[in-house]
Every structure is written in structure tokens, then in C-alpha cells.
Design a protein that fits this description.
Length: about 230
């Protein structure tokens, strides 16, 4: 039997990336995970990424250090900028939120492209979603298409052999409820994941940030209980 083709999978430790990894495996790929320490305040997600990778018996999982804190500009990398909480409107806030990390997905995908070249792998999976509350510019379908155009020109494999590395964004048009239902069907243990932008030291979710609100609403819509641990009081 031929070995499964490898795919580079960006794995943050959150709900979406865990589902994306499960989809890659379900599509017949051998997922090779890539996670980043970039100075994020919710660094407990890296332990979650490790748990998820182990649960799916991922044989290669790389952790890369990129410190984005000197640049600042995001509540996720600058401790002086508070994470927004308690949005009572039930609707996305106007504009790009302060939790957007400048150029993060471009940086991550560039590393994933390098990882795919040396695996070798012809496929990269990223769990971006255009229906989230976020409005992040690097989660849009046209952004993914633009990076694909770059990837088609940027690698030695493409220049010498015409080999294309394809960017997959299987969650991009899914609701959070559909993402959760898909992952549930594929065996994702969401109790291993961390979605919160401002978790406690033990990984407990705050239950008040936009990421928590979106996660809780998704589980409610899917008719499932969220297995995450939330802070009390």
C-alpha cells in the first residue's frame, strides 16, 4: 500500500485548526503539524496544539519561535492593549478588531510553504474562516487566492518541476456550528482545544471575550455541550 501523501497543517491549538487537521486526515493525508510561539498572551494554546496532535497520532509536529511582541499593534501580543470583552450586542463590532495580529497568517503561511517544500508535501491546510465575527483581512477567500498565486511562483519545486503546493482552507465558508459538527463527526475532542484570547494560567477560558462568545454560540447552535473549562465568578 502506498504511503499517504503528506500535508502541512497549521495547528494553533484552537477549535478551527483542530477541525482542519481532522479534515486533512479524513481526506487521506498524513498531517504534519506546524505551531508557532509568537509572543501570544494565550500561549496555553500551544499545550493544546500538542494534545491535539497526539490525539491524532501526528508523527511530525514542529514548533517555531517568532516573537511579534516588539511590533505590538494587537491585544494578543501587547499586554498594554486589553482584550475586548462582554460585547452585549450579539453582533460583530465594526471594523477590524484589536485582536487582529498584523500579517500573522501571511507569516504563518510563508513558514508552512517552506515546511511543505522540505517534507515534501504538495498541500497546506489552514483553518481560516470568513464567517467569523473577526473581519480579519487575512481570513478572506481572496486573501487565500492571492497567497496561492504567490505560492505558485515562490518555490523551487514550482520553478524547476512545475509542482504546485495547494493551499486548502476547508472551513472558510462554514458557520461555527457546522465546523463543530464536522469535527465531532471526525473524532475531534474539543475538550483538548483552547479558543480563549485571555485564558487563565491553567487554560481556563474567560467566557467573556469574542472568541469565547463565538465558540459558545457555535456549540449551542450545534446542540452540543462545550467541553472547555470556563472561569467561574
Amino acid at each position: 500500500m502506498a504511503a499517504a501523501p503528506k500535508a502541512a497543517v497549521l495547528l494553533s491549538g484552537g477549535l478551527d485548526s483542530a477541525t482542519c487537521l481532522a479534515i486533512a486526515r479524513d481526506q487521506g493525508f498524513e498531517p504534519c503539524a506546524l505551531s508557532f510561539r509568537y509572543g501570544q498572551r494565550h500561549a496555553v494554546e500551544l499545550a493544546a496544539a500538542r494534545r491535539i496532535a497526539r490525539s491524532f497520532e501526528v508523527t511530525r509536529h514542529e514548533f517555531v519561535d517568532i516573537d511579534l511582541r516588539p511590533f505590538g499593534g494587537s491585544a494578543l501580543t501587547d499586554a498594554a492593549i486589553p482584550v475586548p470583552k462582554d460585547n452585549q450586542s450579539g453582533r460583530p463590532q465594526a471594523g477590524i478588531p484589536v485582536t487582529y495580529v498584523p500579517a500573522r497568517n501571511t507569516i504563518f503561511l510563508s513558514f508552512a510553504l517552506a515546511f511543505a517544500e522540505v517534507l515534501p508535501a504538495d498541500d497546506i491546510f489552514i483553518g481560516v474562516n470568513a464567517l467569523d465575527y473577526s473581519g480579519y483581512p487575512d481570513c478572506r477567500p481572496d486573501y487565500v487566492a492571492a497567497f496561492q498565486a504567490l505560492a505558485d511562483l515562490a518555490t523551487r519545486a514550482a520553478a524547476e518541476n512545475g509542482r504546485r503546493i495547494t493551499i486548502h482552507a476547508p472551513l472558510i465558508a462554514m458557520t461555527k456550528a457546522r465546523i463543530i459538527a464536522t469535527g465531532q463527526a471526525l473524532g475531534v475532542d474539543y475538550g483538548l482545544t483552547v479558543s480563549c484570547y485571555d485564558p487563565g494560567s491553567g487554560g481556563e477560558a474567560c467566557g467573556r471575550c469574542d472568541a469565547c462568545a463565538l465558540r459558545l454560540a457555535g456549540f449551542a447552535e450545534a446542540g452540543l455541550r462545550d467541553p472547555a473549562t470556563y472561569m467561574t465568578g
